[in-house]
Amino acid sequence: MTGRDRGLRILAPLAIGLLVLLGWEALVRLRGIPPYVLPGPVAIAEALVRDWGPLSASLLVTLKITALALLIAASLGLLLAVLFAQSPVLELSLFPYAVILQVTPIVAIAPLIIIWVDDVTLSLLICAWIVAFFPILSNTTVGLNSTDHNLLDLFRLYGAGRWQVLWRLRLPTAMPYFLAGLRISGGLALIGAIVAEFVAGTGGNASGLAYRILEAGFQLQIPRMFAALVLISAAGIGIFLALSLLSHLLLRRWHESAMAGGDRR
């Protein structure tokens, strides 16, 4: 990819975003829309600066839950996928329950989890983990099962044991799949944490950004509500970019999807 292409990939979305913000601000000012109905970008920026203290503290709470949920989902998802790859019977027995866990709306089960678990932070963590777990498990399982059978036969021909095949062949093959699932689960963990915070509605020092949104809504401080939404969106973008960078760093020297040639169209 040339320098011009890289610049275009950055500047084009920024230009579109700037035009949308300018149009939004112009619409609000020309039509005289009050801020408690639809605040403009300037009012949202002012609220973000004015209320940065409580909003940033809530952001850290939400990010902590998201990061822990993603770490647990990645660890358990990878471990269970490896077990599935070693035992097809185990995969056939347990994978349907993982699907059931994925398709069950977190909004429906979050109240039950919060009731059953005494600790609020732990209940939020469980809700976020449930949402983030399946993409990692599913993608990694597919990656482990996508190993070239010719290479598997070659390893067996040279007398490689099961764990040598797993460590030197199947896990490297599954790495791009695992990292793709990780990128998906990063945003889902954030969504799960936000949804759980909405249901829990906890205030005080343990309040996340979802509680700040509820609080601003009750007080009709709509610019603050939008400021919290901006932080949530920024956090989601930051998580995706960080995981994309991690994927690029791990794959750039050997996998076509991250090599320079893989970016050519």
TrEMBL record:
<feature type="transmembrane region" description="Helical">
    <location>
        <begin position="190"/>
        <end position="214"/>
    </location>
</feature>
<dbReference type="InterPro" id="IPR035906">
    <property type="entry name" value="MetI-like_sf"/>
</dbReference>
<keyword id="KW-0812">Transmembrane</keyword>
<feature type="domain" description="ABC transmembrane type-1">
    <location>
        <begin position="59"/>
        <end position="247"/>
    </location>
</feature>
<protein>
    <submittedName>
        <fullName>ABC transporter permease</fullName>
    </submittedName>
</protein>
<keyword id="KW-0472">Membrane</keyword>
<feature type="transmembrane region" description="Helical">
    <location>
        <begin position="226"/>
        <end position="251"/>
    </location>
</feature>
<feature type="transmembrane region" description="Helical">
    <location>
        <begin position="123"/>
        <end position="144"/>
    </location>
</feature>
<feature type="transmembrane region" description="Helical">
    <location>
        <begin position="97"/>
        <end position="117"/>
    </location>
</feature>
<keyword id="KW-1003">Cell membrane</keyword>
<keyword id="KW-0813">Transport</keyword>
<feature type="transmembrane region" description="Helical">
    <location>
        <begin position="7"/>
        <end position="27"/>
    </location>
</feature>
<feature type="transmembrane region" description="Helical">
    <location>
        <begin position="65"/>
        <end position="85"/>
    </location>
</feature>
<dbReference type="InterPro" id="IPR000515">
    <property type="entry name" value="MetI-like"/>
</dbReference>
<dbReference type="Pfam" id="PF00528">
    <property type="entry name" value="BPD_transp_1"/>
</dbReference>
<dbReference type="GO" id="GO:0005886">
    <property type="term" value="C:plasma membrane"/>
</dbReference>
<keyword id="KW-1133">Transmembrane helix</keyword>
<dbReference type="GO" id="GO:0055085">
    <property type="term" value="P:transmembrane transport"/>
</dbReference>
<comment type="similarity">
    <text>Belongs to the binding-protein-dependent transport system permease family.</text>
</comment>
